[in-house]
Write a structure and sequence with these properties.
This protein is α/β, with parallel strands linked by helices and about 725 residues long. The chain contains 22 helices and 27 strands. Helix 1 crosses helix 16 (about 345-360) and helix 13 packs across helix 14 (about 310-320).
Length: about 725
């Protein structure tokens, strides 16, 4: 079978190369390191990045440390062919290391440089959770393409993105990095990101190798606690969690990263069933798998190996091709192969996969970045800023509006909340190459729009609320705009929260703001759904702003003034309270669906309904759905529906189609998203929208991974969110 990344010629030259490689050189290819930080700061580079993304040190402290730190780049190991890949974000140094690999090693195999380019590089785009709320496939691709261009000019070949973990528990901090709870939307996102990062010409030199992560079910960590255990029926894994990986692989993703968690008792890092049987065999994945940082080492703490050597052996046998930072292969694999515990075949396969990506993406021919390419993005190009503004606008979700929005330009705005004036906070977690100088805070955005605005911090995310400051601001304003939410360190990796309400005294500030009698507009900045029932009841408007990237302030200001009509739709359910977690719309039915009866599946002390359902988002106009007609051909389900703009301004609606298989051989979800379409309508304009769904998308996997298409009655739901839909039924024969 042809390798999708290589020509026949290239396949031959890889075989040739493998035939010449010593055992040590093979092990070297499977070893990824980051510079060790020696002297002064006794943590690894990866840990340092994690400290910054968790907010334990500021971005500035991180940069200063990196500048000052004495680093060991393991040059001698590179020279000996003992390293195949490096985590690095220093283009000149990367060229130096590459020169050693190309000119001073026996075989001249290039290093592949990897880095976390998650939602933009210098041009920071909305966090993935926000961007997914745009439901805009072209945008997903465009932002990845720009990130790739900028990062590649910085001598990075490979990004550890897209993260395509399905995330249904708002307590989990990494919800921020994910495209949300739905397998269909996440699959669209996955494909578009792979396309955007990698481009169609893999050797263009302006792209990045993509990495689907974290394989798999990381988002289902028990209790929403990061790194926690995952127990899950196979059919749930197949129908929900694997989909975005399967689709990303179809699109050609070059690499996959293993997840930290276990799946049903076996860590994903050394899980043969997941890595060999499903990924490499069933999905025919031809690229390579890398572990997460130190994850092979973590297997000792999982209690599945007695020491690092055993963990490495189990991981390599299971199909983990590259070790990120555990040092579990180098130094051990040589003896394990020599005494027959690991076969040379296993090693050759891993090396072949790694060389395939290096060659397929042109690193043998194009291993360096020219110095004059390195500073191309010192200043952000106009088109990148425009794209970032577009992405930020499209990602905003209007959660409530009793008519106070949009506001007139002359209105006196009293702006409060610490987050309104913290430029760095717009970037969200994992924006390592983002720069404060490029960031527009909400306060700045309003000033840029010549708003009549007075700002006072009034309340910090962690600092106490100051009533006097609020009174002063309120006295001189017509409306209060309160920016509240979470700091960057409160979401992302290792940032799970047991309480997902507004941190600190922020709610007190909002209550006091309502007491002033002035209309209250709440702008949220957050990396997860927040439980805000009080805010929903009392604020006059709520704008979900997430962390929207460098142009956040301008985008929010555009929405507040009505220069942009919000069109975002939630890619994740907002629970009404933390006790509802995990909370997601496409849950299976129970024998006693939640209702008024005591003996139904519900809580006695809390509502069952979430605060805002999946797919929800308002506009400054309104849309009406009518005349739904469902028909079918042999291959397709055809849904036609009339959508009308019933409000006073132009708007964009995202029409969503959900399906329920009413009776099947296994319990099916109450509804599942199968398609969506965006439609732009002028006031009073009405359009008939047609959506076609291939019938082979209406099946499901059983516990043995058989895909079943079962005849019977299907319920079809069409609407602007997962709750408020027109419905009809149709009998389908496959
Ligand atoms: C740990 C994170 O889980 C992963 O997402 C990231 O890519 C690696 N560290 C490398 O920074």
């Amino acid at each position: 079978m042809m390798n999708r990344f290589l020509t026949l010629e290239e396949e031959k030259s890889i075989n040739n190369l493998i035939a010449q490689m010593t055992l040590e050189e093979k092990v070297g290819q499977m070893n990824q390191l980051s510079p060790s930080i020696v002297g002064g700061f006794d943590v690894s580079f990866v840990e340092l990045i994690e400290m910054m993304t968790e907010g334990r040190i500021s971005k500035e402290e991180f940069e200063n440390t990196m500048r000052k730190a004495e680093k060991d780049y393991h040059e001698d190991d590179i020279r000996q062919g003992r390293i195949g890949s490096f985590l690095i974000n220093d283009p000149k140094k990367a060229n130096e290391l590459q020169r050693i690999a190309m000119e001073e090693t026996r075989l001249g195999i290039p290093l592949i440089f990897g880095f976390d380019v998650i939602h933009g590089f210098h041009t920071v785009f909305p966090i993935p959770l926000a961007e997914a709320c745009s439901w805009d496939d072209e945008l997903f691709e465009e932002t990845a393409m720009i990130a790739a261009k900028e990062a590649r000019s910085h001598n990075i070949h490979w990004t550890f993105a897209p993260m395509v973990d399905i995330a249904r528990d708002a307590r989990w901090g990494r919800v921020a990095e994910s495209p949300g709870e739905d397998p269909y939307l996440a699959s669209v996102f996955s494909r578009a990101k792979v396309k955007g990062f990698q481009g169609s010409n893999y050797k263009s030199g302006k792209n990045l190798v993509a990495c689907l992560k974290h394989y798999v079910a990381y988002g289902a960590a028990e209790g929403g606690r990061d790194y926690n255990t995952v127990s899950m029926a196979p059919n749930v894994l197949f129908n929900t969690y694997l989909d975005p990986f399967k689709e990303g692989i179809k699109e050609g993703a070059g690499t996959v990263m293993g997840a930290f968690n276990d799946y049903n008792g076996i860590p994903c890092t050394l899980n043969q069933y997941l890595l060999r049987d499903i990924l490499k065999s069933t999905y025919n994945f031809q690229g390579f798998v890398v572990s997460d940082a130190n994850a092979i080492h973590d297997c000792v703490r999982h209690g599945i190996a007695s020491d690092l050597e055993e963990a490495g052996e189990k991981a390599v046998v299971a199909g983990m091709d590259m070790d990120m930072n555990s040092n579990a292969y180098s130094g051990f694999l040589e003896t394990q192969v020599a005494d027959g515990r690991v076969s040379m075949k296993v090693l050759d396969e891993a090396v072949r996969r790694i060389l395939t990506i290096k060659m397929g993406f042109g690193l043998f021919d194009n291993p360096y970045v020219a110095e004059d390419q390195m500073n191309l993005y010192e200043e952000l190009p106009k088109e990148h800023i425009e794209s970032s503004l577009k992405a930020a606008r499209k990602s905003i979700v209007l959660l409530k509006n009793d008519g106070v929005l949009p506001i007139d330009r002359g209105v006196r705005i009293g702006l409060v909340g610490e987050l309104a004036d913290m430029p760095d906070e717009v970037m969200g977690s994992w924006a390592i190459a983002g720069r404060s100088k490029d960031c527009v805070s909400i306060y700045q955005g309003l000033k840029n729009a010549n708003a009549n605005v007075t700002y006072a911090k009034t309340c910090g995310v962690k600092e106490p609320f100051n009533q006097d400051e609020l009174n002063q601001v309120a006295a001189d304003s017509d409306v209060i705009v309160a920016v509240v939410g979470e700091t960057i360190g409160m979401s992302g990796e290792a940032a799970s929260r047991a309480d997902i309400s507004l941190p600190g005294d922020q709610l007190d500030m909002l209550k006091a703001a309502v007491d002033t009698g002035k209309p209250l507009i709440v702008v949220l900045m957050n990396g997860r759904p927040l439980a805000i029932p009080w805010v929903d009841q009392h604020a006059h408007a709520i704008v979900e702003g997430w962390q929207l990237g460098v142009q956040m302030g301008n985008a929010v200001s555009d929405v507040l003034f009505g220069d942009y009509n919000p069109s975002g739709k939630l890619c994740v359910t907002f629970p009404a309270m933390v006790g509802q977690c995990p909370s997601y719309y496409d849950h299976p039915n129970t024998g006693r669906p939640g209702g008024k009866s005591k003996f139904s599946s519900r809580y006695i002390d809390a509502p069952l309904e979430p605060l805002y359902p999946f797919g929800y988002g308002l506009s400054y106009t309104s849309f009406d759905y009518s005349n739904m007609v469902i028909t079918q051909t042999q291959e397709e389900l055809i849904i036609k529906v009339q959508v009308k703009n019933t409000g006073k301004c132009q708007g964009i609606e995202t029409l969503q189609v959900y399906i329920q298989d009413k009776a099947a051989s296994m319990i099916r979800p109450v509804k599942s998203l199968k398609a969506y379409k965006k439609v732009a309508l002028d006031p009073d304009e009405s359009k008939e929208i047609e959506i076609r769904i291939s019938k082979d998308k209406l099946g499901f996997y059983d516990n043995d991974m058989n895909y079943l298409l079962e005849d019977g009655v299907f319920k079809v739901f069409v609407g602007g969110n997962s709750r408020d839909c027109q419905t009809d039924e149709i009998n389908i024969n496959f």
